[in-house]
Hints:
The complex is a heterodimer of chains A (about 450) and B (about 80). With about 450 residues, chain A is α+β, with helices and mostly antiparallel strands. Chain A folds into three domains: about 5-105, Rossmann fold, CATH 3.40.50.20; about 135-200, 2-Layer Sandwich (Dna Ligase, domain 1); about 205-445, 2-Layer Sandwich (D-amino Acid Aminotransferase, Chain A, domain 1), CATH 3.30.470.
Amino acid sequence: xxxxxxxxxxxxxxxxxxxxxxxxxxxxxxxxxxxxxxxxxxxxxxxxxxxxxxxxxxxxxxxxxxxxxxxxxxxxxxxxxxxxxxxxxxxxxxxxxxxxxxxxxxxxxxxxxxxxxxxxxxxxxxxxxxxxxxxxxxxxxxxxxxxxxxxxxxxxxxxxxxxxxxxxxxxxxxxxxxxxxxxxxxxxxxxxxxxxxxxxxxxxxxxxxxxxxxxxxxxxxxxxxxxxxxxxxxxxxxxxxxxxxxxxxxxxxxxxxxxxxxxxxxxxxxxxxxxxxxxxxxxxxxxxxxxxxxxxxxxxxxxxxxxxxxxxxxxxxxxxxxxxxxxxxxxxxxxxxxxxxxxxxxxxxxxxxxxxxxxxxxxxxxxxxxxxxxxxxxxxxxxxxxxxxxxxxxxxxxxxxxxxxxxxxxxxxxxxxxxxxxxxxxxxxxxxxxxxxxxxxxxxxxxxxx
Amino acid sequence: xxxxxxxxxxxxxxxxxxxxxxxxxxxxxxxxxxxxxxxxxxxxxxxxxxxxxxxxxxxxxxxxxxxxxxxxxxxxxxxx
Lengths: 450, 80
């Protein structure tokens, strides 16, 4: 059952990415759009488009009923959720399934399991994948202090229903933990609708390395190697690269094998990402993202695969187009996230009109963006407006290519993170590939601005 | 008695309350001091508190909860 038509339940560059994959596979694509996006690129390039509501995300792209109604009225046979918005809501995937449509992703039950931190850790343990030392859910301050004796300080208090780095609080001692647990429970309850929290050992300067997997409905699972994503601010990634520099081949194999084991264990289907923290020779599973990832282009660069096309083929019931031995990596790729934010003003969001735009090009340069000159970046959605991804045969050449492409890149009318990336590529830890998850925030505090 | 209008420093979506289930920051008739939070504007998934830039009594909300607002838009009218 090959897919014939797909509702693209997203906006911006990822919606355009999915529309493009559909076009190449001969699948009819139907975009959805809010008031603010009536003339957006993902709407213009899709075969059809359905208006789903007002501009604010909760009244459009986060409105599951409106998106489902659009799918029904457009007569599609599948829904691609992209990333963010409804992509990791088990209730949305379940509603798509119940409507008799195909959800381009894993079964809703798998999203539910991997979206629950405690359940995800249990899956990892049963797949013999190491997890960060941590506790079960704790219900009181006394309970937490007792659990922390086992876990070891410093600890992080995390919301069971949290994600994307939200709902995490550190505590270095029992006294601090008593206060933090109560605050964390209150915050989790209002932010996520569940006050459940647990403890985890706080590692000292680990690296964030994640493994891309693909799994079909016939039981095959392959990995597509890893991505290094440690350059983060407030747990939001800003620059990613593949392969991860400084990873021994033994550790790389162990990580990739662990990701495949875990995905098989949970009955995964589709494209997914297994995230790990790596410290020394040890690695620990932290979570699985059950969707396509923002930074998927760098994996596409080094493997030559089209991950979104694979998603669509898998959803249509086809077997993976590759066996593990066919997935070969070559060269090095780096992605730079271009956000409408002002790095000189504490990353203040900067919606507004793009009055001028010049995109980089030439060998080994790929830009994923839905933003054109004259477009207005609305204030209602994520600040990511473009992704620049470069590839070269070696990491050193990829860095040089990144510098060259960033020098060509010009956005007028609003501040972006392009200048930040230019400065980052002169930073020794980035040049050497020796950074960890603390590097970017430390550098931002210490470095002169402007 | 004069009047003063609090405006939005950023475009986005205006909220009367810190979270959907919480009580509103202020209601009409409430007195506020300079610096008190009177609302929240969400811009690109970040939240910015709207502070009273004068003391007074809230006479009127000029936008509804979850309304889309533009930069500089009038949000709350105070009697000063």
